[in-house]
Amino acid sequence: MTTKLAPLLAAALLVGTFLTPALAGVYPVSGRWTYENALERGPARDCRGDRHMDFGAERRFDNSGGVPDFRNVRVVRTGLSAYYIVDEFLTAQVRGRTSFSLVVLDEDHIRIQLEASGKTFVLRRCA
C-alpha cells in the first residue's frame, strides 16, 4: 500500500511547491541614502534634503520620482557586491514592476542602474 501512495505523495508535494507564493528578497542595503553630493567621501551628515531613498527589508521609498513606494519582488546576487532587483509598485492608476542593478561600491556608496532607461546614479549613505 505504501508503494502505491509514494508517487501520489511526491506529486502532491511537487504541486504544493509550485502553488506556494514566492517570498520577496531582502534588499542588500538598508536605511536612508541621499542623491545630494553622492560622490563625496564618507557618509552624508545631513540627509534632510529633498531627494533621498529609504530601504527597508522588503520595501523601498523614493521621493525623487513619480512613484514613491515600492515592494520588493526578487533580489538576485549577480556578483561579489552586485544585485539584480525587481520591485513592484502600485499607484492610483497603474500596477507595475521595475527592475534595476544595484552595486555596493563601498559602505557609504551604492550605484543603481535602471533597466528600462539605462539611467545610472550613485547614492550616498546617510549617517
Provide an overview of this structure.
The structure is a single chain. The chain has about 130 residues and is mainly beta. The chain has one domain. Helix content is about 15%, strand content about 45%. The protein has 1 helix and 8 strands, in the order H-E-E-E-E-E-E-E-E. It has one helix at about 1-20, and strands at about 30-35, 50-55, 60, 70-75, 80-90, 95-105, 110-115, 120-125. Strands 1-2-3-4-5-6-7-8 form an 8-stranded antiparallel beta barrel. Strand 4 (about 70-75) and strand 5 form a beta hairpin. The model is unreliable at about 5-20 (pLDDT under 50).
Summarize the structure.
14% of the residues lie in helices and 43% in strands.
How is the topology of this model organized?
Blueprint (H helix, E strand, L loop, with lengths): L1 H18 L11 E4 L17 E4 L3 E4 L6 E9 L4 E9 L4 E12 L2 E6 L5 E6 L2
Antiparallel strand pairs: 1-2, 1-8, 2-3, 3-4, 4-5, 5-6, 6-7, 7-8
Please outline the major beta sheet.
8 strands, antiparallel, barrel
Shape: globular
Number of structurally distinct domains: 1
Based on secondary structure, the structural category is mainly beta
Rg over alpha carbons: 19 Å
Residue windows where pLDDT falls under 50 for at least 5 positions = 5-22
Oligomer: single chain
Mean pLDDT: 85
Give the strand line-up of the largest sheet. 1-2-3-4-5-6-7-8
Number of helices: 1
Percent helix range: 10-25%
- State which percent range the strand residues make up: 35-45%
What is the straight-line distance between the termini?
65 Å
Number of strands: 8
| SSE topology string | HEEEEEEEE
